[in-house]
């Protein structure tokens, strides 16, 4: 999902197409339910999987399956939550539930998946950009491997970081720093001569901003995962308090929708509290500013690559737009003066 | 979400799944019947075009209650059809039925070629041209401005630079004092590197800004809303309402980079508007120049433009006739909520009627107003409850003046 806007476009299309086909798939879907009784242990998952399987079996299965997967994109988050609730449900009913047992129920990996989905986190895109940086730099140095290794190692460490493990966090910084110093750093120090000098300098700026972006983004994501974990802990604490005080917990224990409402409310409050901190503003700004700088350097680098080809590039178009803007403004001003003088003449 | 997956009873669960399936099938039928999501259906005529901008004139739905035309100035960040989202929840249709003569600006969708457009271009260029077109077309020397959100800020700036062309200024949920940190948007914008953003994009895509708006309530706006949608799928009207609102939320035009840069730097970060330091071209904006009647409307539960950003306008303008109106609700509720239709639209119309002066350029004397302009100072903290007593007939005003002289 590249953006919410794109998601919505895809969502509307998928709703229209998928639900038109749904009636024809009804019987087949029910047969899958009958054939897979174990699916009933998780009805939401069963419903989703049955839908996907049913569509896969049709003539245009792959595309329909893809559409349905997109349709269920937002409700996937619900499934992650449902898994958590399912595991703690019986404990709540048996009154054995307390806040300390939080980790038995809340899987950090699932919290990470939820947060990733909600805020469009995608570490693979950073890896992809790092690989592109490496390709650009291949003529100067061979340094792609440490970057890819560092990114992969960091992705694997995310669940620990999501739990607030400071050592995992430090290790992730160390990985990025090592990759940067051992390879990109060498490029920065390489002598810059001849016609490649501009390209080399630009590449250095690009790699530097990408490195800053990657580092900030890891810290930002880690804070978001941590906040997600805290929110889940707060949900558990509120439920545990009810259980221990003997208060009736029928709603949250027996109705997933009641638990869902509580979870939404607590998460919104917890994240809002974090969003109001200076720490969040600093992190968010660091991520976006370095991301924008990376984008700018990347396009400038692309322009250099295209310089010898007979194509118009962005900066040239921007120059043209500026000329058109200035000219248009002058024309409007002259038109206005002309109209005013004509009005004066006609009144005279 | 009401019942899906709510218990572990297998029979009940199958029943719920069956019900959900029925909803989906009905939803599928409704969706297949929908050719397009219709919004902004109140009849209107295109009266002026300039670059991407279009100026529309709404077809009157009742006899004119006032002589001075009203120009609605919407924000740049969203599409103006929010004010006419659907026939039975249309703020504009309500105003038309109450007798207002309404024009509206559609700023359009800026392309990369528009990246250099500045606040000066939008306010002293496009907006001023629209006002002049309306003045000429309606033969009225002045126009009443009704600015919404950022459009309200622009309207106030325009009114301070061109007070001679503005009869009344009505602002709805518009920010003026940017020093507050009450809303996340305000605290985030203060540390935002807008130079990096504009330099990277030129025209900043709508989805980039939308990501920020969704972050204000991520769980409700990204998850709960869509889960709740499952419940209304079997109701065609509710499904259509949902789709219309979704269409509006994600129909976000890009932002001309230079205009956005100045708005964020000078307003959100520098708070120059209320400090009297905001410059547009070679002109400095002084809110004290706003001498016409002002109706400033804020929403008590506005999470986008908090009341603290809106209310100070009344202390900053030079007008003696100024009214502060509290709408109990949120930012969007001001336009689509049932209270908006029942209470706010009539209140605005009533306020305008009592301040209407028909000034015909072709006549030497001003036409007799249907009600007189209130000339007495009005407390800046006037609320809706106090609004009615503030509105005075000409006779009442004369009496008040006589009494004041006696004192």
Kindly name the structural category of chain A: mainly alpha
Shape of chain B: globular
Number of strands of chain B: 12
Strand content of chain B: 5-15%
Determine the oligomeric state from the structure.
Answer: heterodimer
Mean pLDDT of chain A: 68
Order of helices and strands of chain B: HEEEHEHEHEHHEHHHEHHEEEHHEHHHH
Structure description:
The complex is a heterodimer of chains A (348) and B (407). Chain A has helices at 4-35, 43-56, 61-71, 73-93, 102-105, 108-119, 123-137, 144-162, 166-189, 197-244, 250-254, 256-275, 278-306, 314-347. Chain A is mostly helical and 348 residues long. In chain A, α10 (197-244) packs across α12. The N and C termini of chain A lie far apart (65 Å). Chain B is an alpha/beta fold and 407 residues long. Helix content of chain B is 45%, strand content 14%. Chain B has helices at residues 10-33, 91-97, 119-138, 150-161, 184-191, 194-201, 206-214, 218-232, 236-250, 257-269, 272-275, 307-310, 313-316, 333-336, 338-353, 384-390, 394-406, and strands at residues 44-50, 53-58, 70-73, 102-106, 143-148, 166-172, 203-204, 255-256, 279-280, 283-284, 294-299, 322-327. Mean pLDDT of chain B is 83; it is low at 1-9 and 359-397. At the A-B interface, α1, α2, α4, α12 and α13 of A face α1, α5, α6, α7 and α8 of B.
Descriptive terms for the model:
heterodimer; A: 348 residues; mainly alpha; flat; B: 407 residues; alpha/beta; eight-stranded mixed sheet; two-stranded antiparallel sheet; 45% helix; globular
Summarize the topology.
The complex is a heterodimer of chains A (348) and B (407).
Chain A: H1 4-35, H2 43-56, H3 61-71, H4 73-93, H5 102-105, H6 108-119, H7 123-137, H8 144-162, H9 166-189, H10 197-244, H11 250-254, H12 256-275, H13 278-306, H14 314-347
Chain B: H1 10-33, E1 44-50, E2 53-58, E3 70-73, H2 91-97, E4 102-106, H3 119-138, E5 143-148, H4 150-161, E6 166-172, H5 184-191, H6 194-201, E7 203-204, H7 206-214, H8 218-232, H9 236-250, E8 255-256, H10 257-269, H11 272-275, E9 279-280, E10 283-284, E11 294-299, H12 307-310, H13 313-316, E12 322-327, H14 333-336, H15 338-353, H16 384-390, H17 394-406
Parallel strand pairs in B: 3-4, 3-5, 5-6, 6-11, 11-12
Antiparallel strand pairs in B: 1-2, 2-4, 7-8, 9-10
Helix pairs in contact in B: 2-15, 3-4, 3-10, 5-10, 6-10
